[in-house]
């Protein structure tokens, strides 16, 4: 592992532990050159290798895109980064793949909305407004009414 502070590639693992139901290994490391400590995470890569975009293009799956969308939705909400990572893992576990290990952005978006609805209603509405491309305030209000009826 390369030290993020000095770039040296000699470090020692100080502590290892699993998190998120054993799906991730968190390792606390110390650089043997500069002595700085840093954390690394080891996780299983999801099966999906490609995401099918709305216009039909295919691009490699990137969990960071899901993370960015979630972070925008939960901005200024009382939700920890650990919780965001757990939500991403739940989404990745539920991804429905086709025979070519592809998944559509629509399927990913629906899973994100499903998890956000459980996590935080404000974040859910924020994400839904972008994902569903609301054009009017009435569409926004209708989504909120639906959310209120469900609760």
TrEMBL record:
Binds 1 zinc ion. Its cofactor is Zn(2+). One of its GO terms (molecular function) is DNA binding. It comes from the Bacteria. GO terms for biological process: negative regulation of DNA-templated transcription. Keywords: ATP-binding, DNA-binding, Metal-binding, Nucleotide-binding, Repressor, Transcription, Transcription regulation, Zinc, Zinc-finger. A zinc finger (unnamed) spans 3-34. InterPro entries: ATP-cone_dom (IPR005144), NrdR-like_N (IPR055173), RNR_NrdR-like (IPR003796). Residues 49-139 form the ATP-cone domain. Negatively regulates transcription of bacterial ribonucleotide reductase nrd genes and operons by binding to NrdR-boxes. Belongs to the NrdR family. This is Transcriptional repressor NrdR. The lineage of its organism: Bacteria, Bacillati, Candidatus Margulisiibacteriota, Candidatus Termititenacia, Candidatus Termititenacales. The gene is nrdR.
